[in-house]
Design brief:
about 325 residues; alpha/beta; 2-enoyl-CoA Hydratase, Chain A, domain 1; 2 domains; 14 helices; globular; Acetyl_CoA_COase_a_su; Acetyl-coenzyme A carboxylase carboxyl transferase subunit alpha; transferase; ligase; carboxyl- or carbamoyltransferase activity
Amino acid sequence: MNNTLEFEKPIVELQNKIYELECFAKDKDVDLSEEINILKNKVEKMKKEIYTNLTPWQKVKIARAQERPTTLQYIERIVPNFIEFHGDRLYADDSSIVGGIGILEGVPVTVIGHQKGKDTKENIKRNFGMPHPEGYRKALRLMKQAEKFKRPIVTFIDTAGAFCGLGAEERGQGEAIAMNLLEMSKLKTPVISIVIGEGGSGGALALGVSDKVAMLEHSIYSVITPEGLASILWKDSGLAKDATEVMKLTSQDLLKLKVIDDIIEEPLGGAHRDIDDMSKSIKDYILRVLPSLVNIDVEKLVQKRYEKIRAIGVWK
């Protein structure tokens, strides 16, 4: 990462030392390969220790990282002939949600996802991945189109939440999200949702009512942001780190709670370390679960989705 996370600094410092040694050995024509290999092995050991024991707050940091791959980056690797559609046919085109059609290994699919920016300029254009009502209505339009033409739907979830500005509320933000929840629950075509970064509140759920819900290993999924929870419970958003300890927002927590169905393993250090490898893992997952959903009777598919939603959570 260009903006190194706090817990990654020891790794970065050691990598810098390795680079300095390599430059020194080359300039002075000295053989330091043994010393360099020892340090490289130490780096790999440190990575395994750090990334296999991440705290919830550290996972939040990774999920929000600027370098984390976006929906469009995955789409161009998984569905290379993707054609993007625009507009909700009611008000406008919302750039914080992208959607369209493409061919996935011979299967026509509709792909929809939240889209964050990779820099300040793009983030402003994409509204930092926080959709307006027209974004959710665009998504629903594409879902109903997919249902009409019997195309499976794949959604990528990555948002801090729906935009809560005055204009969004005036245009029916709550109604747009509620309508997506209702319509997705009864769509007569398979739906697969994958949380690739941050899954926040109803803004995420509006793309997340699915037959299969998976999360990338270091992604998060919660009813509210840690800062929001800390503000409500303790009147101090600065206690967000403490909030993550009780929120159960990691993929491992949510798999235990049966909120999600699967976890997709990330490359060591996070998805941004190897986008191609991460994209392959996501593609392999979709291709693995899709046949069982495509081959089931439509009425049974919808009924199973309903039963799955009703069974979410663990009670004592």
